[in-house]
């Protein structure tokens, strides 16, 4: 007779456990481990290509121009399109995701401005593009802080960044 009593109690516990799930936690896990993981290679490729011809790796304007036009911009545009196609379920993750989209759009615009500046030999536009890149980096930092905060609040353990991953 006790066996029959145990089955409904276990069934009720199973049903109730579903009521206590955290939709933000679930959404964050899918967002980071599936959605972003599937497209992060595009961002990494574009940024690596950009870094290969800027800063200490800069050789001349032609190499920079060609790399931006043929490698960086098309790959980063693909990343942006994939990023914008991601749909999330919760307002908290959506807010963070929109921050990331804003940063990526700004960085994409800066890349395009660099090409325009090189075509027009306009140093002023290069300075504008550099400011845009700086602003985009700040937005990405803000996004990372937001994701870290959400992860902490919703008991999601983040791994350390590897090869330029988002976090």
Fold and architecture overview:
The structure is a single chain. By secondary structure, this protein is mainly α. It has one domain: Four Helix Bundle (Hemerythrin (Met), subunit A) (Up-down Bundle), CATH 1.20.120. Helix 2 packs antiparallel against helix 3 and helix 4 runs antiparallel to helix 5. The longest helix is centred in the last third of the chain and has 31 residues.
Structural class of the helix and strand makeup? mainly alpha
> For the report, how would you describe the main beta sheet?
none
Secondary-structure arrangement, i.e. CATH architecture: Up-down Bundle
CATH class: Mainly Alpha
User: How many domains in all?
Assistant: 1
User: Helix and strand succession?
Assistant: HHHHH
Give me the Rg, rounded: 22 Å
Q: Which features does this protein show?
A:
mainly alpha, 167 residues, 0% strand, Four Helix Bundle (Hemerythrin (Met), subunit A), disordered N terminus
Secondary structure blueprint with pairings:
Blueprint: H1 2-19, H2 23-51, H3 61-85, H4 91-120, H5 123-153
What's a quick, concise take on this entry?
By secondary structure, the chain is mostly helical. The chain has helices at about 1-20, 25-50, 60-85, 90-120, 125-155.
